[in-house]
Amino acid sequence: MADLDLWIIGDPGGAVGGLAATFGTIGRQDYLRVNDLDQMVTVILPRLGPSNRIRSLQITDHGFSYHTAEDQKKGIAGHGLQAVGKTEIYSWDAGGNTVGPSKLAQVLAPLRPRFAPGATVMLEGCTVGQADRLLAAVSSALGGVPVSGGSNYQRPTIP
To answer: Residue 49 has what pLDDT?
Structure first.
């Protein structure tokens, strides 16, 4: 049984996904490009085979957090979103075509038992590390796997 490090890049051809693929992946072939969250799950599962587990999962795409003093006054600080291609994952159930905590748990359910002990997930979207409610929602959907993110704005040429 082998533990794998997986790198997902969403939004093929988009600002973040396209530039990350152009600059961040030079000389590397260890990433998977996806159009949305459902496709992410369907491309990961065959990579794992029947006995491999996920040691780390890195997701690179757009992100946003509500973290300003004004957001704190409004009571929305700690919320945010992480894109995976066309899918926008929110820290609340926003409805429409978005994915909130309840739907996220359903979509990610097949991956939940596939994480190795000590596994980690890293969200690479602008300021998502300041969206503690988003990080908690993704962690919960994955059965408690620790989820972290960067607190700064991404630089497209340095994912």
So the answer is: 86
With residue 16 as reference, give the H or E element that holds it: helix 15-19
Q: What does the alpha-carbon distance between residue 118 and residue 113 come to, in Å, rounded to a whole number? A: 13
Q: How far is CA 60 from CA 10, 18, 27, 70, in A?
A: 6, 11, 17, 27
HEC-encoded secondary structure of 69-110: HHHHHHCCCCCEEEEECCEEEECCCCCCCCECHHHHHHHHHH
Which residue do the tokens 């040691």 mark? Answer: 55
Average pLDDT over residues 80-107: 90
**Cα–Cα distance for residue pair 41/111, rounded to 1 Å:** 7
Backbone angles phi, psi at 133, to 5 degrees: -70, -35
DSSP code for 19: H
User: Which amino acid would we find at residue 74?
Assistant: K
Residue range 25-64, pLDDT digits in tens? 655 657 898 999 999 999 999 999 888 999 999 998 889 9
Q: Is 75 left (phi over 0), alpha (psi -120 to 50) or beta?
A: left
64 and 128 Cβ atoms separated by less than 8 Å: yes
Phi, psi of 146 (to 5 degrees): -60, 135
